[in-house]
Structures are given as C-alpha cells and as structure tokens.
Amino acid sequence: MDIVVPIKMVPDLVEELEIDSEGRDLDRSSLKLRISEWDEQAVEEALLLRDKHGARVTVIALDTGDVDETLFTCLAKGADRAIKLLGGEAAQGSSRATASVLAKALKGIPHDLVLTGVQAVDDRDGQVAVFLAEALGLPHVSVVSGVEPAGPNAVVARQEYAGGVMAEFEVDLPCVLGIQAAREAPRYAPVSRVRQAMKTLKLEAAAAAAPDAGAGSTVRRLAKPDAGGRAEILEGSPEEVAEKLYAILKGKGLVKS
Amino acid sequence: MSQDVAVVIEHLGGKIADIVFEMLGTGRELATSTGGKLLAVAAGQGLAPLAKELGAADAVLLCQGAGLEPYTPDAHQQALAAVLTARAPRITLVGNTSIGMDLGAGLAAALGWPLVAYCRGARLEGGTLVATSQIYGGKLLAEAAVAGEHAIVSMLAGSSPAEAGRAAGASAVEEIAVPAGGPRRVRFRRLIQPAAGDVDITREGVLVSVGRGLQSKDNLPVVEELARALGGTVSASRPIVDQGWLPKTRQVGKSGMTVKPKLYVAVGISGAPEHLEGMRGAELIVAVNTDANAPIFTVAHYGVVGDLFDVLPPLTEKIKASA
Ligand SMILES: Cc1cc2nc3c(=O)[nH]c(=O)nc-3n(C[C@H](O)[C@H](O)[C@H](O)COP(=O)(O)OP(=O)(O)OC[C@H]3O[C@@H](n4cnc5c(N)ncnc54)[C@H](O)[C@@H]3O)c2cc1C
Predict the structure, then answer these.
(1) What is the pLDDT, as a whole number, of residue A228?
(2) Which atom of ligand 1 is nearest to B210's Cα?
C-alpha cells in the first residue's frame, strides 16, 4: 500500500505573532515555522500502519520555507520518500489552493491512502484534506483518530464527535483522511538521526503546478482579539498572587475559611 | 440566486446539535440583512420530530432516505449539494464540528462556492459578505470580504447564544427528493460510546485543568495537589490526553466534555477555540499561563501571567494552611 502524507509548515504559536504594516497578513520575515501538529499526527499514523502492515510512506510538502529539516525529520522517523514542491508560494494562505497544487502533484505519485492533518492553525478557507479529496475525486472523512486496513481495498476510520463518541466507517481506497490524532504520540527522531539523514538521504524535488482554485475571499484586517472582556491580571510575586487568588476564592465561597 | 440563508442541521442519534440553534440565530440576522428567508436544511431519515424544534426557520427542507441515516460524509454531501444547487441560497451556514468539517469544505468544493471557516461572526456590508475567522489557535482574528453570489460559512461553537435560535413550532416543512446515490464509498459500521471513567468531570464543581505547559507527565502532582486542596478534580486539554498522561474521560473541549463548574483553573492551556468551546460556560475561570497573549485570558475572569511551577505551589500551600 502506498500512503502519502501531505504536510504543511505553519507559524509556531509559542512565538509572538507580528502583523505586517498593511494589517492583512503576518509579518513573515520574523516567523518561526514548524510542522503543523495535526500533520505530525498524520505522519505518525502512516508510520504505525507501515510498521504493522507494511506500506510505503511518502511525505510531501510545498516548499514555503524551512521545510527541508522537517522533511529530513520525517525520513529519520522512517518515511520512505520525501518530496518538496518548489515554487508553490502562490498557494500560500489558502487551503483550497494548496489542495489544488497537491492534487496535481499526486497525479504522478502512487497513493492508496492519503493521510493529512485534519486542520492547521492557519487554515482560513477550510481544510486541505477535504479539498484534496474533492480535487482527486476521492472519498474523505475528517477528524479521524485510528485507521486500520479492512481487506485489500478499504480501511476502517474512526471519526470523533463531542464527548468521546466515535463513528466507525469503512472507506474504499483510495481515500483521503483528515487525521486528528495518531493512536500513539508521535515518535521522536533524535537530532543525531536527523543529521545523519541530512547527510545520507536526499529530498526529491518537483515543480509545484499553479493552483487553479483560491479562497474566494480576501482578508481585509488581521488583528488580535479585542482587549475588552479580558481577564483581570493579578500581579506580584507568586506568594502575593497566591494571597490575592485565595482572597478571591474565599470571597466566592470556593475555599474554606 | 436567492437571498435566502440556509443553515445545515447537524444531528446525531435523533438529537440536534446545540450549534444549530446558535446558527439559526446568526442566520436570522443575516436573512434580515439580505431580505431573504431562513431555511433549515437537514439530511437523514425519520426527521419529522426534529423539524418541530426548528421553528426559528421560515422553512425546513428535509432530504430523507434510508441511505442518509446514520450520517456518512459522501451521502450527506451529495444530498445537501442537490438541495443547495436547487435553492441557491446567498449564504449557507455549517457548524465547525467534525461533521461540519466534512460538509463545509466538501460542499464548497462540489458547488464551487467560497468557504470561510472558523468564523465567530458574519454580516453583510452593502451586499458584501464579511466574515471573521478565528485562526492561529485563537490568537488572531481575520476579517475577510467574500466574493461571489454564494458562500459557505463554517461557524465556531459558542459564537452566539443558542436561545436566539430555539423556537418550537411550525415552520413550513418541505420534503426534497433525494438523488439516487450509487454504491457508497464510505459506509457506516457502528457508533462507539466512550468508556465510563473513574470520575465524571461534567459533575465536578471545581476543575483544575492542565495543558501542554505541564511539559511532562511527571509534573502532574503539581496540579493534582492544587485540585486536592480545592476539593476538586484534574481535567485536561486534548494534547495531555493524546499523550496518554490522563484518560480521555478527563478531556475538556470540542472532542471531549463540555463542563460548567463553579471554578475552572486553566493551567498551561493556551485557550484554542476547540478548548474554549468546552469550558467558557464555567462560573469562575482563573488562568495561569506564561504567555500574556494566550487566548485563554480572553475568557478568564482572573489571570496570572507566570510559570505554573512558581504560581501553583504557594497557592496550594495557602489553601491547605487555611483549611
Ligand atoms: C477537531 C478537533 C478537536 C479538538 N478537540 C479538542 C478538545 O476537546 N479539547 C482540547 O483541549 N483541544 C482540542 N483540540 C486541540 C486544540 O486545537 C489545541 O491544539 C489544544 O487545545 C491545545 O492544548 P494546550 O492548550 O494544552 O496546548 P498549547 O496550545 O500548546 O498551549 C500550551 C500553553 O502552555 C503555556 N505554558 C508553557 N509553559 C508554561 C508554564 N511553565 N507555565 C504556565 N504556562 C505555560 C504556553 O504559553 C501555552 O499557552 C481539537 C482540535 C481539533 C482539530
């Protein structure tokens, strides 16, 4: 079975996000990027399936900056191929455009099962998994945790709902699944193994096709949420803060006095 | 094209999802602006009882058929796409839920309409649809103008009060013929209920909830001790559960439990929309986070910008000493 995992680089939310002078996009010059956390889960689910049932795992990404080390990390974790699509900047900022570029690339890459993150923190016009499935004419399921083969031509995928309820679907291959969580926490590739991969393995590169779809909407304003309704911040040393919090809780009858 | 506003009615096991009533409220405001009707559109089978709860809509459109119950992404997408094509509403609202993620993007792709996702609000400005998405884990709001005659807007839970859309009574109900679907590529097998846990966090009065700021499972005692001092229980954000540090039954949020305790202490939790969805109704919310810009502070009543390992122990001691 050929499993393809499209991944995406997104801003690391641990860092401060700066808005550019026009107020419509992030200031991308100072951004620190990381693999989207749900894509990391999709990579793990693919590797788990490969470990248990045998498969070839191909990771693919648009080269929107800083992607090399992430792709090498995927190789170090055990992915069989890593492909970078050059010149895909036109698709940046739109899941629909990204999916259209990926769909064209997948025409030339065997794919029985496509696993990708159910969402990304910078999705604004929807989710890549669903748009990719539609562009390829394939069935799809979103918010999946847990994928198992069901014979040679189908998989069982569990879709999560609120309250921990799940629906189990049988989905014909090929299909696209939007992964919420792998069955196990993503494996860790030590830096030494990633360095080793960088020395001994190669990333494949291909030109990104032009996107033939876009978001259909334009951001007029990007802003931090209003300060209104924000918490009252308690200042002071930890001991002083503890006193203040204690007094508040006591006032509400939430601690014994 | 019509000026109508359609709301996709999500339901599971004979129960309408809460977000539907929020969207009917939002949809009514939009329909007032467009001058069109508010349509409730549902796919499934045996939907007549559900239609009675949709009195807030001007008309309820039902696509019923054996292949539409229970929900599967492809059958529902096909049925709803047929209705939306025929009615051509100006704006279609779907919930940003698991099912809404399938349908929102699926319908947008099938119909060739724009989709704006993760929305907190939508309005018309001189005929232009303007929708505000909450992105980057809730840290930023993107206000976008949407092109074209039709659009799909996926709404975050908790964006508007559900009361606005809750009205029993008779709307005109219309049965819509369902297009014959060929063999289905996604087949429903079964529904899996969560295993019962040691505690039911929805019944706890005090929750000390922990997130990825905890860094390691070995640090759990820091929050457990505060929870014990407060006579409460430890709950968590999703990553803590995904990593196996706490059982699924302790998870608060979109894919976990919705809780409304008297006190919710959020420790090392950023406050992503999927988390806020499950706890914004708590009576008193206290947040401890090293990041002054963490979105959790937008819903908390009191906040401490600081390291949980510095802030929690003296608080726990103070409460214990005073008990
Ligand atoms: C379909 C779907 C469903 C989901 N369902 C849920 C759900 O039910 N529940 C849920 O919680 N999430 C859910 N999520 C995930 C959600 O999007 C976020 O990824 C998640 O809530 C983040 O968890 P977190 O706040 O613990 O981690 P992060 O976002 O990583 O936040 C960690 C926070 O800890 C702070 N911190 C770090 N160190 C310290 C320290 N020493 N002291 C104090 N603070 C510190 C950081 O500043 C940061 O704000 C869902 C996602 C999807 C796609």
Answers:
(1) 65
(2) 26
